[in-house]
Amino acid sequence: MNLKYAQQFSPQKIFVLSAKHGLVHLDEEIDPYDVTLNEMSASERKEWAARVVSQLRENADLENDHFVILAGQKYRQYLLPYLRSYEVPLEGLKIGQQLQFLKEKAARE
């Protein structure tokens, strides 16, 4: 549902945030893994975010591009300070509310 919603923005690029791999391109295949930022310390999440920011710099303009972030709070917490223009449509919604929001948006497509 996140992908379908993201595509409604007609973005130039869509990425997936992976706790193990950082920034993942949609056409990139990765093996299953059992890692989540929810189980990492703040310092580990900061290190992860630094790696993602580096990957983002290779693929986007952090100063001029607009980012739509559909990731949870722990995934975006240390990324947002590096992005000049962004929005977080699911901010403040619990997981059930997020799923309902995405389901409604996808149904309109």
The total count of strands amounts to 4
Helix content: 25-40%
Q: Compute the number of helices.
A: 4
Give the CA-based shape.
globular
Describe the model.
The mean pLDDT is 90. The N and C termini lie close together (11 Å). The chain has helices at 2-7, 42-59, 73-76, 95-108, and strands spanning 15-18, 22-25, 66-68, 85-87. The strands form two sheets. A two-stranded antiparallel ribbon has the order 1-2. It has a two-stranded parallel sheet with strand order 3-4. The protein has one domain (2-108). The protein is an alpha+beta fold.
Task: Describe the structure concisely.
The chain has 109 residues and is of the alpha+beta class. The chain has helices at 2-7, 42-59, 73-76, 95-108, and strands at residues 15-18, 22-25, 66-68, 85-87.
Q: What is the strand and helix layout of this fold?
A:
Blueprint (H helix, E strand, L loop, with lengths): L1 H6 L7 E4 L3 E4 L16 H18 L6 E3 L4 H4 L8 E3 L7 H14 L1
Parallel strand pairs: 3-4
Antiparallel strand pairs: 1-2
Keywords:
109 residues, alpha+beta, two-stranded antiparallel ribbon, two-stranded parallel sheet, 4 helices, globular
